[in-house]
């Protein structure tokens, strides 16, 4: 058996075409979905990611409000900008790029965003609504994983899912989303982490394995049963002298070996990654639609 590759770029492109049509329809009603992106400092990875988000907004016809602040920006200045965006009717989504400089308290910044404009899905109100199964903006990477599964024809209801990783960004929200009594849930979910005694024993029984540990080769071929679906959320740099950059990107699973056993598998790069920004656009368009109907 050789696994079918789940092409995240293709799925993301299909969803963006759908969103482009929705944006065009909103514009006929006088609303242009707007995303305010706030970047503090000059972290290269964050700058690259923010630029990609702004480009994606432009491609589907959305408005991007670019706010790039120096690293010495104070907490008070950042909070004032968030307040301004909260009150701006042209802004439907607010994204504060993480990580923030050490002198800024992230735990105070994220709750300052209006939950109605929290398109990252990190506000405690949206997290709480998600957990109890109410309508909420879902965190982008976990929601992207679920869209990849659904659009690849994977049955979630009744499936044994093992998630390796318990971060607030991926592992925890994804587990909550998959156990909901809904068409995007009804799975039986196990979450493994650094204190799990025998990760392999859990992974071996999984119909769907989701690796979000942040460490190369966390999941090996011996740990995966034949025909399993494997979703690799990890993005890790490993040294590679053959590359101009001196490194290459790999996920958390042994891709080459596991693709000989799995039925479906995501590559790194080109798997989950393209979906994260797409779901950010999705949430912003949903926010603009709600604003129109209020």
The amount of beta strand, in percent, is 15-25%
Mean pLDDT: 95
**Amount of helix:** 25-40%
Overall domain count: 2
Topology order in helix (H) and strand (E) letters: EHEHEHEHHHEHEHEEEEHEH
Instruction: State the separation between the terminal residues, measured CA to CA.
Output: 52 Å
Strand neighbour order, sheet with most strands:
1-11-8-7-5-6
Describe the structure.
- The protein has 294 residues and is α/β, with parallel strands linked by helices.
- It has two domains: 84 residues, 3-Layer(aba) Sandwich (Rossmann fold); 135 residues, 3-Layer(aba) Sandwich (Rossmann fold), CATH 3.40.50.
- Helix content is 38%, strand content 16%.
- It is built from ten helices and eleven strands.
- It has a six-stranded parallel beta sheet.
- The longest helix has 21 residues.
- The N and C termini lie far apart (52 Å).
What does the secondary structure layout of this molecule look like, with pairings?
Blueprint: E1 4-5, H1 8-28, E2 34-40, H2 44-60, E3 63-69, H3 75-87, E4 93-96, H4 106-109, H5 124-131, H6 140-151, E5 160-164, H7 171-178, E6 188-192, H8 199-203, E7 208-211, E8 229-232, E9 236-239, E10 247-250, H9 255-258, E11 264-265, H10 273-293
Parallel strand pairs: 1-11, 2-3, 2-4, 5-6, 5-7, 7-8, 8-11
Antiparallel strand pairs: 9-10
Helix pairs in contact: 1-10, 6-7, 6-10
Question: What labels would you give this structure?
Answer:
single chain, 294 residues, alpha/beta, Rossmann fold, six-stranded parallel sheet, three-stranded parallel sheet, 10 helices, 11 strands, globular
């Amino acid at each position: 058996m050789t696994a079918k590759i789940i092409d995240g770029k293709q799925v993301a492109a299909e969803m963006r075409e759908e969103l482009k049509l929705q944006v065009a329809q909103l514009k006929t009603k006088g609303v242009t979905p707007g995303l305010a992106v706030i970047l503090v400092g000059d972290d290269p990875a964050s700058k690259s990611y923010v630029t990609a988000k702004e480009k994606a907004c432009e491609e589907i016809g959305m408005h991007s409000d670019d706010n790039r602040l120096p690293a010495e920006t104070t907490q008070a200045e950042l909070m004032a900008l968030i307040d301004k965006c909260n009150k701006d009717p042209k802004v439907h989504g607010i994204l504060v790029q993480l990580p923030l400089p050490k002198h800024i308290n992230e735990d105070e910044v994220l709750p300052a965003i209006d939950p109605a404009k929290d398109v990252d899905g990190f506000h405690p109100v949206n997290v709480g609504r998600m957990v109890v199964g109410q309508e909420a903006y879902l965190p982008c990477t976990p929601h992207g994983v679920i869209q990849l599964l659904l659009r690849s024809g994977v049955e979630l209801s009744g499936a044994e899912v093992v998630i390796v990783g318990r971060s607030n960004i991926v592992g925890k929200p994804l587990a909550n989303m998959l156990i909901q009594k809904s068409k995007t849930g009804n799975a039986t979910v196990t979450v493994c982490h650094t204190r799990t005694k025998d990760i392999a024993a859990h992974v071996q029984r999984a119909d769907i394995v989701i690796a979000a540990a942040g460490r190369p080769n966390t999941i090996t071929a011996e740990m995966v049963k034949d025909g399993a679906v494997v979703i690799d959320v990890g993005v890790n740099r490993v040294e590679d002298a053959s590359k101009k950059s001196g490194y290459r990107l790999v996920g958390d699973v042994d891709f080459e070996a596991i693709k000989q056993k799995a039925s479906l598998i995501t590559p790194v790069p080109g798997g989950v990654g393209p979906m994260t920004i797409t779901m950010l656009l999705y949430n912003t368009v949903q926010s603009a639609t709600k604003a129109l109907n209020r």
